[in-house]
Amino acid sequence: MLKLFKYMKPYFWQCLVLVLAVGLQVFGTLMLPTMMADIVNNGINNNDTDYIFRTGIFMFLVTVVSALGTLVSSYFSTKVSAGISRDMKRDLFAKVLSFSITETEQFSTASLVTRTTNDVSQVQQTMVMCLSMLVRAPLMAVGAVVQAFVVAPDMTWIIALAIGILLIFSIVIIGSVMPKFAVFQKMMDRINLLTRENLTGVRVIRALNKEDYEEKKFKKANEELTKTDLSIVRIMQLQTPIMMLVFNMTSLFAIWVGVSRLSFDMSYLGKMIAFMQYATQVIMSFLFLTMLFVLIPRANVSAKRINEVLATKSKIVFPEKSLDTPKSKTSVEFRNVSFGYKTTDGKILDNINFIAEAGKTTAFIGSTGSGKSTLINLVPRFYDATEGQILINGVEIQNYSEADLINRIGLVPQKGYLFGGTVRSNILFGVKNGSDEQMKKAAEVAQAAEFIEKMPKKYDTEISEGGTNVSGGQRQRLSIARAVAKNPEIYVFDDAFSALDMKTDRNLRKALKKITEDSVVLVVAQRINTIRDAEQIIVLEQGKIVGKGTHYELLKNCPVYLEIAKSQFSEKELEAELALTHGKNTENRMSQKGEK
């Protein structure tokens, strides 16, 4: 947790004022019992009303000053802790955004949410207590012991006995609850994971009638969390009765000793009253310290989890500025590229080689798990290739700054995601100061303009988080419009047409063809009809390229592509395609002779 105290540096002056205010509060609080004893001994015993009145006014002023110190310390402790919490959340959020997919998967989304919210809250609450009590309680305890010794030295052993009991109790409490805090935070991760999973997959759960199963799974995790929480609370609740027992026993001993002295010295009454108040202050200080000693280990667990995120460095590092000058003509080239996850054996991609040129569409097709999406994810550096080189415009992607690389790419992921806002804000999400003309043109290309115009507020219509208030096809088209609005050099469509009907798919590809004459288009698809007009189709099987060419070339030369075609075309359609294949080959031979 000490590592997080670096966040206190911007609040040095506030902390200084806080410490001074705490010192003022402690000084005033320690003065009052002595003044009360003075009133009893010198005022009441001597029947001196004027002395009682004067001292009483002075006590009132001291109380006001002490209260003012309390208010100032409470204000600044809250302000500083809230500022530290804000700064930690800001840094955590920025750090998470800088993570590659690998680091995000390492922590899990649910755990990152818990660390940014629950763990930061734990640290904030502890810092509020630390800032207000970590200075006050020790000062108060030491000051009260000193004052008690000055007032009634023969009763100081009572406080020493109370402190010994409280120390033993604190050690037992801390030793009992510390291991449970780490378990509790992991259980919180589990609860957040199940909540997020169920909210995201609620339609699937209902469609498969698995509500009872998911409820039981959540109930089990929730009960385990509750049991752990209750065990912590039970141990913590022992504080009050034990503190009250120690307090009452201290008071009883003080009265017993005091009364035995009163028989021969009536002035001991004031000392006894003052001593009892100082004893109370010592015990209360230890109560607060015990609470801190319990809260600090719990916050320390949260602080470690926060530091784990802050200390994690992304495996994908971008230079601040692009290191090479790219060629003017856009291209994407893979040279002997291989990729494998550390958590799995073998390669997901193995020795991939191809060049995608501007004005041409390069498509990727293959069975599930063949590595299509993984290959596409290497282009914007969501992952880095484990072997080989990837070049954009003749420059290795590792030599591009993050902004330079991403600004060149318009990505449409497999699952189109929309952000809370409006249609306008979603389409222009990746464009600075985008114009209405830019937005409407992108919507037209993406075949989204028609349904947008029918919306209540058209482009100002509200979109809910995740785009849940529009259909899957509409969500996909808005995602495509968002990429088109960037006017990038490289378009990356990761199975982005799967939610579209045949007519919309055809019209969209036709419109895209007109605006991508100077751009590279990379398309991952499941349907052959989506990519049949692509200038280059790459067939993947178990991470390797098993076919490369046009639609008709692959039908003739690539058995894997032919199998895919058989699964998607009827017998008559396939026969017609194969007949055209023969015709295309004849045309190619004639054109080659003519060129010669």
Automatic annotation (TrEMBL):
State the annotated membrane topology for this chain: Multi-pass membrane protein
InterPro entries for the chain: AAA+_ATPase, ABC1_TM_dom, ABC1_TM_sf, ABC_transporter-like_ATP-bd, ABC_transporter-like_CS, P-loop_NTPase, Type_1_exporter
Instruction: Give start and end of each ABC transporter domain.
Output: 332-567
Top-level division of the source organism's lineage? Bacteria
What are the UniProt keywords, alphabetically? Answer: ATP-binding, Membrane, Nucleotide-binding, Transmembrane, Transmembrane helix
Boundaries of every ABC transmembrane type-1 domain copy: 16-298
What GO molecular function annotations does the UniProt record carry, in alphabetical order? ATP binding
Nucleotide-binding: present as a keyword of the record?
Answer: yes
Transmembrane region positions? 12-32, 52-76, 133-151, 157-178, 242-263, 275-296
Cross-referenced Pfam families: ABC_membrane, ABC_tran
The compartments listed are: Cell membrane
Protein known as: ABC transporter ATP-binding protein
Source species of the chain:
Candidatus Nanosyncoccus nanoralicus
